[in-house]
Design a protein that fits this description.
Two copies of one chain form a homodimer.
Chain A: H1 2-23, E1 29-30, E2 42-43, E3 49-54, E4 61-65, E5 68-71, E6 73-74, E7 79-83, E8 90-98, E9 101-103, E10 110-113, E11 116-123, E12 140-148, E13 153-161, E14 175-179, H2 195-204, E15 212-216, H3 234-251, E16 261-266, H4 268-279, E17 286-290, E18 308-314, H5 319-331, E19 336-341, H6 348-359
Helix pairs in contact in A: 2-6
Chain lengths: ~375, ~375
């Protein structure tokens, strides 16, 4: 009997390892956000991430992605290799763990998220064309430093101006103020968010009106990553409304009025958008919350000239809440649109798609 | 006798360790180019770099800077700490070595150099004020994508426009084309080079005429880091002269003629500047080679409207060669200026200072 049990166990282990080997499809390609010339990390058609690092004297190396650590295996040369389980389409932050040290993967480009510059990976999606670099006219992304008396610093923002902005010197443009999430920064939308390429492509296809996008740092109390419970919107509201908007209107050819001004944000940036638009209903005419909460009709009754409320999230978040809120707003007489990003969670692919959707509805 | 020798040896070891302990001055401060909120790496008044990383299961961790590896020491919590020897003032690339793996220090911001995005450290200098972020009007740094038929891509460049450019819509500006070095890229000048802050400060002090700076990627044959011996300037010359300059003149308010156009570069970028200006003496009126070679009078005899030749390097490079070449050019009737950066080698502080010097001589 014992012998039979051992035979069964051996067979199960053997077949499991066989099945496991079968499930990894060997069509890995370098990630499009690798450092120049680097072959790893790679991604296969299942969305698995494979990476490699030379660490001849390490005891263990792990790939740490999506909250799970995957062991890499060392060969005789000291090169460690291993794969993750399949990941959702789109962009993910990740890191390596080398003998207990959390470090970026030297193969990847670096992105600001999770409160630090670290590695990122791009899992191909069937709609990645919306943010691909194409042969179309390209806008510019301006890095600006604007004076901020309230914080006693020069603060940084990125400003997307649409193709042709520099030539059409008599034309003025509407503006979208677009905020990043918790523990991200003003680079997140123009870098992993691909905001500029999304806009270049939409404008080239005639699907979006050309407008300016302004992206600044929304965690005004500097780096106090202590949670949002005691979040005070006042410092950022002051920077945005009293310092940044006047600077933008003074230095760029904007249409400087409510009808031509939108605000949107992802996650914490949605939370900020909600609070600022509720405090100051006179400033923006278009509101967008991407995985960042909802409005109720009763909150918006005194919002004059409100043109659009856009609510979105990933299908792996709480799409019912977003859809129900948009319904309630429409019943209340507001122009509300909800969008659910299929197959994605609380991550940047949801928000790229949200920008792609909302941009087509703005200033029309 | 043997006992005496042992006593002497013990004394020498004891006094050496005492002296060594004495030489590290405990006035370490966080590097100004750390990731937000990070206390390490730090630098002391001697220019030593101290860093820390948690790696409880590592056998060894080293700080790898300036071609030398310094051992870190582990405490009982698994935190490794250690210091380098004193470094030259200014900016240096570095990395960590964890059990044989070369990785960025998670405490540092990331910079492109040595063919990869990696850690950088800033050693205070008595002239760091030239690139400090001050309360002065700031120019903008535009990230642009320009079409390049010769390489069949959209290529990236950064364009500095001086303070007031966006408002002074009837004004036109001269342009400096400014190149990075080998294994750096178009981010190197606006990031570790601080080109925009150097210009903002000079313009605020009235020491430089406002002009545009254009910085693009100069290793046109993509990533073939195979050495410069077989370097062919033609592909980059085509991108620069036939594609980038026309795009800039079309999309920015430039003074589009030789008298208002300068080219300069550091190291390999100086090598490129030299070759392109020799091939095409009609395009630029100001030439700058920063640690990037020299010209001889006989090479420049047919250069009409040449206004300035600027040659520079660090005092730890070959200052005699640079000074002699400038002398020879002056004897040949050319307006040649040499500059030697005191106490620095083939590194970015030499080149920041070189830009600071040359900018004051341009377009006047």
């Amino acid at each position: 009997m014992k012998r039979i049990l051992i035979s069964i166990a051996v067979f199960l282990i053997w077949s499991a390892s066989f099945c496991f080997a079968q499930t990894i499809i060997e069509d890995f390609q370098p990630s499009p956000v690798n450092q120049p010339g680097r072959e790893f990390p790679q991604v296969n058609s299942e969305g698995r991430v494979r990476t490699q690092i030379m660490a001849p004297d390490a005891k263990y190396v792990q790939l740490d992605i999506g909250g799970v650590k995957y062991d890499l295996v060392k060969d005789e040369s000291g090169l460690w290799t291993g794969e993750s389980a399949p990941q959702d389409v789109g962009f993910h932050y990740y890191q390596l763990n080398i003998d207990g040290a959390s470090v970026p993967d030297p193969g990847s480009l670096l992105f600001f998220g999770a409160c630090r510059w670290g590695s990122g990976i791009e899992i191909p999606s069937n709609d990645q064309d919306i943010f691909a670099l194409k042969e179309v006219p390209h806008g510019h992304v301006h890095e600006i430093l604007f004076p901020s008396k309230s914080t006693n610093t020069s603060r940084r923002a990125f400003v997307y101006t649409p193709p042709g902005y520099d030539k059409a010197t008599s034309e003025r443009y509407p503006v979208l103020y677009l905020q990043h999430g918790y523990c991200e920064n003003e680079t997140s939308w123009p870098s992993q968010g691909r905001a500029n390429l999304i806009m270049d492509n939409l404008i080239a296809e005639g699907k979006a009106k050309p407008f300016i996008i302004v992206m600044t740092y929304g965690m005004t109390n500097e780096i106090k990553f202590g949670g949002l419970r005691n979040f005070d919107i006042k410092p950022f509201q002051t920077v945005l409304l009293d310092e940044l908007i006047p600077y933008i209107d003074d230095n760029f050819r904007t249409l400087a009025n409510q009808e031509n001004r939108a605000m949107a944000g992802l996650s914490m940036g949605g939370f900020e958008t909600r609070l600022i638009t509720l405090n100051r209903p006179d400033v923006f005419a278009y509101y967008g919350l991407f995985s960042g909460g909802v409005y109720k009709s009763e909150e918006l009754v005194d919002h004059k000239n409100l043109k659009l409320v856009f609510l979105s999230c990933g299908s792996k978040e709480r799409p019912d809440g977003v859809n129900a809120a948009a319904n309630e707003l429409r019943n209340g007489g507001f122009n509300a649109v909800s969008y659910v990003s299929e197959g994605t969670a609380h991550e940047f692919h949801t928000w790229r798609r949200s920008l792609h959707q909302m941009a087509q509805l703005l200033f029309k």
